[in-house]
Amino acid sequence: MNRPPAGDTLAIGFGTDGPPVTAAMTWGQVAIWDVLRWLPPEDTSTNLVLAVPAPSGTAVGRAATAVRLLVERHDSLRTLFSEGPRGPLQTVLPGGTLPVRLHPAGAAGPRDTAEEVGRQLRSTPFAAAEPPVRAAVVTDGPDAAVVVLCLSHLAIDGWSLSILRADLAQLLTDPPGLAPRAQQPLERAGYEASEPARRSEQRALLFWERALRELPAAMVEDLRDGGPSDRQWSRLSSPALALAAAEHARRARLSPSVVLQAGTLLLLALYTGEPSAALRTIVATRFRPENQALVGAFNQNALVRAELREETFDAFLRRVGGAAATGYRHTEYEPRALEELIERIGTERGLRTGGFCFFNDVRFGSGQQPLGAPAAGSPEALAGALDRTELSDPEWDFDQKGAKFFLFLQELEAPAGPDSARSVITLCADRRFLAGRGSAVFLRDLEWLLAGTAYAETTVGALAAALRGRVPAAG
Fold it and tell me: Where is the signal peptide, in residue numbers (predicted)?
């Protein structure tokens, strides 16, 4: 095949057995559906991009076939979504046509071209009648170099990206080597209508109700009062934070992500002067073998809360680890039922609810291995890494539904020692909630907290006193 000129498009037909099937959306799909309906119609911030390199010598036709097989394998990639008279609906299409755009790499090279193609694909909102996947192939000479997909968040969550990445790589090399299909969203919807699922939902809502009645008002109250928020975006790039989180994780036998949740909870309580704090964490609720490899919008919110006690910081970390596990066990519920519960309890308490603190670990979509074992470090390496901390103002500027504090964990790796350690965290927070301090100050304090306690035993009380002695930078 000759090198395709820029702008060529292949029309790829996909097909499976059976007619279209319409059913209620899953709970995870409803959660994203309501977020997308709340955002402006032109918003594209939730569109997700996946780029998978093709093996050397891969024909363009073979790359297009891999895309077709991927769409046929995962129902969510050929599903349309709508609001029905009794609630949100999903309709799985048995067949259709997917355009695959061809983009020669040229002087920019395949990788940079793929990044630009991804930006182009995600720059337009998905239409209601459009399948939730767009595809392109970056070519290098006559061959396919990179397959690029843009996917609607209604079709997938961050965990799904890692599944799709592995499946597409397998389809580009050895299609028969794919594992059997996992549970599909329609099957999950069937489970959610069952009696066992409803019992699980009732347990989850009872857990949330007890917490919502006990949490300080500052952790749930909306500060906007009908007006704009006073929010600030900041981004921290810190090798030291990665090393510190890895050391805490090793010692406390927790994941580094939970270590960061614990540090965030402690600072939130100390900033607000409250006896406890809470985070709504975004969780890929794949707790059963049948849905470990489910591709779909499957995220739900867990509630992780911790009260302050006079104890060592290590003990606090372990306690938050237990609280996180408890929160994760109570994440199966219909999202609209939870929001109704939040509003009802807010009314009973005389609170204007809608201002939560969120923590979203988005590393699964980037190809990282967030659950890998951390590398061993040292106090000297940690001290040296502090000189490489960078603070910046990200280009992000979008609102977060029901949030006055939203932390995105984008990178957190210490795979081979101090020189390769890296963490990137982006925070959007309302300054009024942070006692007049901005997001940049909070991120610096989070680094200070975890780095300062990684190799030194201290207590929560001592940390509170030390934080009061820190002079906040302008933020």
Answer: none
Task: CATH number of the domain at 363, please.
Answer: 3.30.559.30
162/308 same-domain check: no
The answer to whether the CB of 353 falls within 8 A of the CB of 220 is yes
DSSP state of 281: E
Give the containing element (helix H, strand E) for 283.
strand 276-284
Q: Considering its fold, how many domains does the chain have in total?
A: 2
User: Per-residue pLDDT averaged across 159-170, rounded?
Assistant: 95
219 vs 214, 229, 278, 351, CA distance in Å?
Answer: 10, 16, 6, 11
**pTM to 2 decimal places:** 0.90
Q: Is 117 exposed, middle or buried (0-12, 13-18, 19+ CB in 10 A)?
A: buried
Share of the chain above pLDDT 70, in %: 93
Mean pLDDT estimate for the chain = 90
Domain range spanning residue 271?
A: 194-469
Same domain, 185 and 331: no
Question: What is the reported pLDDT for 413?
Answer: 83
- Calpha distance 231→317 (Å, rounded): 29
Q: What is the pLDDT of residues 286-323, one digit of tens each?
A: 888 888 899 999 989 999 999 999 999 999 999 999 99
